[in-house]
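Practice set, problem 2.
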Amino acid sequence: MARGIPLIFGSWLWTVAYVGLVGSEPPTHPRTSPLKIPAYSRLLVIAPHPDDEVIGAGGLIQRVRARGGTVRVVYLTDGEAYTAGVEAEERRADPSASDYRDYGRRRQREARAALKRLGVDDEALTFLGFPNNGLAELMSVYWSEHRDSFTSPYTRRDRPRPSQMVVPATRYHGEDLTQELAEIIGEFQPTIIVVPRREDQHVDHCAAWYFTSDALGDVRRVRRAFRTDVMTYIVHYNSWPFEQPSPLLAPPPDLAAGPSGWLDVRLMPEEARTKRDALQTFDSQMKAMGWFLQGFARSNELFSRPPAAHVVLPMAHNPCSRLAEKTTSRGR
């Protein structure tokens, strides 16, 4: 969550954005190029928390399906550790582990309802159940079975529920998360993967990029002919995009796009309305920070292709750990 932005500003921004959505299709921003989406694509969306998939790619999901493609969404966590949301939902200032677990299950239900609005069935959603606000810890300290698994300070769990395990006996170790993602990628064979950028200022979003890159390395070692188009989206970056009172989402002014430049998916009015409806389905998040979700209900979505990177986990110096303090203030 971006800090220091009053709720009234978020509401005003939503009014401006919504007016733009139902009008004519806006021109492409001068710093962007249109993203070309091949027919019959196989899109894999990596979401650190339920709602990130709609915030970042709700329009892209619809466009891929409209072009005869297939969509699968993988949620790394259940979003259970958003303390402000749990406190608001439970009406208590000292949530228990059971409260956090219940909140995670609620966010799962909301995600299923949101994706149904986008035309994606339950069978295409995979909830891995790894620890919200704990993914970065798994990149280094809690990497392997040579030490105890990470225990969530919120849910008190040290492993996903059995029903969430893609690989049997999975625990909260980094190598287990990489293995599960590699299993999913190898089985689904996506032609497009979208994942948060490593510059995203939420620690789980940053970690999601590294785990996805590590898993892709594992897949390519086994399936040497495997190729996929990796694109990134961004959700948390300073006060972006809330300083932009426009229906058109412009790139963050001080964030380089990388070799591809910024890639723009302009939404048709019906696609934009459907994305807005899907965001509204996240009732728990709308109560706690509706202005934040509404700020992404614009008339386009932005992506970029990251530079080629060889990522091998674990890492001695965790590049995401510096974000932990910012993440605590943002929540989600």
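Problem 2, part (b): a different protein.
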Amino acid sequence: MNSKSMHIDNKSESNSIRFVLVALITFIIFYSISLFSVQSYQMYYESREYPMWLHVKSLINGKSDVKQKLVVIGDSRAKAGYEPVLSDDNTLNLAVGGSTPIEGYYILKTFLRNNPVPDNLVLSYSPLHLAHSMFFWERTVKYDFLPDNELDEIVGELKQHNDPGIGKENLIWKYAYLTSMYISSVVEGVKKKRWIINDKVKINLISSKGHAYFGTRHGVSSLNGEVKLAHDFNSSELINYYFIKLIELAKSKSMKVSWYTMPFNEASCKKVSPELVKNFNKYIQLISSKTEMNVIKNIHCMDNKYFGDGSHVYMGSELTTKDILLAIE
């Protein structure tokens, strides 16, 4: 091979390497931009749950000198079932849909770090959200609700306390580095123009002090998740661990802690497993005896006309709010 041919081969090889490097750098730049975009602009494409979680995150991390008489922590049924504006005192609804006492513990912990200690804490979770964590990856992690050290703490506790919903695999890295974890939500968000709905939800959350409706039909006879998905009740080890930690944290600050089970609609009450009702109520009473938590109401029923969907009160939110307010006075 002559020197001219060697020079051409070396040049060709050099061009190929340069092309690969340029392509790789270009890919990294565009991938980084796309990852940053999907993680930074979730208000534009996530479901209406996202502004609710974001609002609670801002409330607990924002510093305030206002002392609350009551804060409510729970899941979506509590979000729909307690209206702070109906109280003459300062109260807040810090519930987030799909959450469990795992998130509840860190919600209270962060709130207490930045706010005066409230007089009362009312906890309210559905049986399903004490049985297992259904949305830890899809909301708590994906929505960047908790700082990394708290997420690591939860994952660490999984080694000793199992939760069938969270599982064994640590998925935090996927939400940190893979755009694929967000693409389906982006597509749905664009199709449904979710940024319009989410902006309205955000405004309503501020004026309502954290209250939000879910279903808004005037009377529903459809069945709730307990009827459709469960035949009995068994608490998650991890949720049980954090449930007790949550109550103990409040008690250590001299807060009065109460429990309120949001009602089932009449249709679900007729179909729900008696074993689930018995064992769930038994579990709440057990927690109450261990921690001196006051139980306002166990599982109970309300007429279908008070519900906006199979799981959440709508026209009945005033009644459930009054139940809670009367119990803490």
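Answer key, part (b): Residues 55 and 205 are 7 Å apart (CA to CA). The chain has two domains: 1-40, 42-328.
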